[in-house]
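Chain A, query sequence.
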Amino acid sequence: MSVENLLVISINTLVSGVYKVAIPGPTSKYNHIMQVTPDTFTEKSITGIQAAHSVAQDAGNIQLAPMHLLKALLDDRDGLLRQLVQKCSIDTQALERAVAKAIVRLPRQDPPPDTITPSPAFLALLRKAQEAQKANGDSHVAVDHLVTALMHDKDVTAVANEVGLTRQAME
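Chain A, predicted structure.
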């Protein structure tokens, strides 16, 4: 996949919590730069993205996908996503198993690549989260914006629907 189709990220700076996201646009190679810093993302959302990166790395996946973020946010026992899932009376263990199965099906490499690039779906997720942030008039992209964006990803909604979790129930 060409760099024009991917989010441009430096993994070293991702781990430190600061990185730039160059998102391809319709009129130019990169028409939107998003900085994932404490100035634009909440500490919890940055932590979630970092955890998603770790999930992808541990699984040997070659790209960072929305499913990794779903697992990372679900693994946070006190986090918003887990609370919402429990409020919807969904079996969290069943959802965890479905997410684990989905991650196993993602492309992987052994040994894992030094740099894990975000997938186009992850790019779309970040854009959707930023749209939700702006629509709410919030100053930072927070975990609730990431959860909203996750529920618009087709692979995430397919896995969520397997256990009876719908976008409507999450709203």
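The first strand starts at residue 19 and ends at 23. Residues 1-20, 22-31 have pLDDT under 50 and may be disordered.
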